[in-house]
Write a structure and sequence with these properties.
Elements lengths: L5 E11 L7 E6 L20 E4 L9 H5 L22 H5 L5 E4 L1 E4 H9 L2 H7 L2 E6 L6 H13 L3 E6 L5 H10 L2 E5 L5 H8 L4 H12 L3 E8 L7 H14 L5 E7 L5 H6 L18 H9 L4 E2 L1
The structure holds iron/sulfur cluster (2 copies).
One iron/sulfur cluster binds next to helix 1.
Protein name: Glycyl-radical enzyme activating protein
Cofactor: [4Fe-4S] cluster
Catalytic activity: glycyl-[protein] + reduced [flavodoxin] + S-adenosyl-L-methionine = glycin-2-yl radical-[protein] + semiquinone [flavodoxin] + 5'-deoxyadenosine + L-methionine + H(+)
Length: 302
C-alpha cells in the first residue's frame, strides 16, 4: 500500500451530532465519482480546488480583475471565465468582501489529527469521534486510511461516510480501518441509479454485501428524494438491508429527508441545479417510509 500523507479537503466542522455517535469532528474530502442531482455540496464533487463566486457579496472594487494573472475575471461584471481560471486563489485572497472564495485545501495527516485531538475530551464524554465524509473519502483512500489509522492510535473513534463506489481492493482497506461505516444507498434500480447519480450501483451493492459480511458496524443511509427514490425503492432497500442484517446484527438503516440547502452553491459555481422547484421535506414526513422498513424487520435509526 502507498503511504499518502497529504490530501485535499474542502471543509472541517466541529461539534456535529448527525454523522455517527456522540459529538464529532467532520472532515470533508474533496472529489466524488458520483453526480447526484440532489447533492447539497456541489463544491465537493471535483477533486481539484475551485473558486466559489458569491455575487451577492461583491462590492465592485475590481481588485480581482487587477490580481488575476490569467485575465479570467470580466472587468465589467467581475464574472469568472472558468475556462481560463486555474484556481490559483489570488482573487480570493484579495477579495475583502469574500465574494470570491477558494474551495479545496491541501492538508497533511498531522494537521487533521491536530484538529481532531483538540476535542478528544468531548469525544470521550459523548461517545463521539471523527467522521470522514465529503465528497467521497474513497477517492483518496491512501490518505484517508493514514488519517483513520493515526486517529485509532490516539484512541479516537472513527467513522467514514461513503457512497461505497469503487474497487473492493481500495474500499476494503479504508473500511477495515474505520470503526463505523455510514453507507449511502441512493437507489436500488441500476438504471435509475445511473440516471440520477451518473454511475451504476453494481459495485456499491457488492461492496455493501462485503462490508456487512465483515461484521463491522454499518449504518445504511437513504437520502429520500421525492419523485426520485421514495416509492418502491424504499421497500427494495429495506429488503436488501434486511438480508444483510441476517449475517450482521450491527447493520442498521436510516432515512434522511431531502433538503435544498445547497441550491445557491450551484449558482456560485456557475452550474445548474436540476431540482430547483422541489420543496424540502420535514423529518416527520419520513414516518410512512420508516413504517415500511419496520414491517420488513429492519433495524432502523431515527
Ligand atoms: S475583489 Fe471581490 S468585491 Fe471586489 S470586485 Fe472582485 S469579487 Fe467583487
Ligand atoms: S483563481 Fe486565479 S486564475 Fe482564477 S479567477 Fe482567481 S485570480 Fe484568476
Amino acid at each position: 500500500m502507498k503511504e499518502k500523507r497529504t490530501g485535499i479537503i474542502f471543509n472541517t466542522q466541529k461539534f456535529s451530532i448527525h454523522d455517527g455517535g456522540g459529538i464529532r469532528t467532520l472532515i470533508f474530502m474533496k472529489g466524488c465519482p458520483l453526480r447526484c442531482i440532489w447533492c447539497s455540496n456541489p463544491e465537493s464533487q471535483r477533486p481539484e480546488p475551485e473558486i466559489i463566486d458569491v455575487k451577492t457579496n461583491c462590492i465592485g472594487c475590481g481588485d480581482c480583475v487587477c490580481v488575476c494573472p490569467k485575465e479570467a475575471v470580466n472587468p465589467l461584471n467581475f464574472q469568472i471565465d472558468r475556462g481560463k481560471c486555474d484556481a490559483c486563489g489570488l482573487c480570493a485572497k484579495s477579495c475583502y468582501a469574500q465574494a470570491k472564495k477558494l474551495t479545496g485545501q491541501v492538508v497533511t495527516v498531522e494537521e487533521l489529527v491536530n484538529i481532531a485531538v483538540k476535542d478528544q475530551v468531548i469525544y470521550r464524554n459523548s461517545g463521539g469521534g471523527v467522521t470522514v465524509g465529503g465528497g467521497e473519502p474513497l477517492t483518496q483512500p491512501d490518505f484517508v486510511y493514514e488519517f483513520l489509522r493515526a486517529c485509532s492510535m490516539r484512541n479516537i473513534h472513527t467513522a467514514i461516510e461513503t457512497c461505497g463506489f469503487g474497487d473492493w481492493s481500495e474500499v476494503e482497506k479504508v473500511f477495515r480501518q474505520a470503526d463505523q461505516i455510514l453507507f449511502d444507498l441512493k437507489c436500488m434500480d441500476e438504471e435509475k441509479h445511473r440516471a440520477y447519480t451518473g454511475v451504476s450501483n453494481k459495485s456499491i451493492l457488492l461492496n455493501a454485501e462485503k462490508a456487512a459480511a465483515s461484521g463491522k458496524e454499518i449504518r445504511f443511509r437513504v437520502p429520500v428524494i421525492p419523485g426520485v427514490n421514495d416509492g418502491e425503492n424504499i421497500r427494495q432497500t429495506g429488503a436488501f438491508v434486511r438480508g444483510l442484517q441476517r449475517q450482521n446484527s450491527q447493520v442498521k438503516v436510516e432515512l434522511l429527508p431531502y433538503h435544498n440547502f445547497g441550491k445557491d452553491k450551484y449558482k456560485w459555481l456557475g452550474r445548474k441545479y436540476d431540482l430547483g422547484s422541489l420543496e424540502r421535506m420535514e423529518k416527520e414526513e419520513l414516518g410512512r417510509y420508516y413504517k415500511v422498513l419496520e414491517e420488513l424487520g429492519c433495524n432502523v435509526v431515527y
